[in-house]
């Protein structure tokens, strides 16, 4: 009787450990996706600023040339 109870406890502990491992993997994957998303947003913002710069400098140059 004790042997089967012990096996049952061990099986429960094993399932709990598997669940914890899966949960940690899920958290890590979520963090990775969030980090990738943040990096993509940052890159997009940087590209937007780069796209704006030439037009700013062209306007400044036109102002100087028109004087």
Q: Strand portion, in percent?
A: under 5%
The total beta strand count reads 0
Distance between the termini: 99 Å
Give the overall shape. rod-shaped
Q: What's the quick description here?
A:
With 67 residues, the protein is mostly helical.
Could you please describe the fold and organization of this structure?
Residues 1-10 have a biased composition (Polar residues). This protein is an all-alpha fold. It contains one helix and no strands. The protein has one helix at 2-65.
Which labels suit this protein?
mainly alpha; 67 residues
List the helices and strands and how they pair.
Layout: H1 2-65
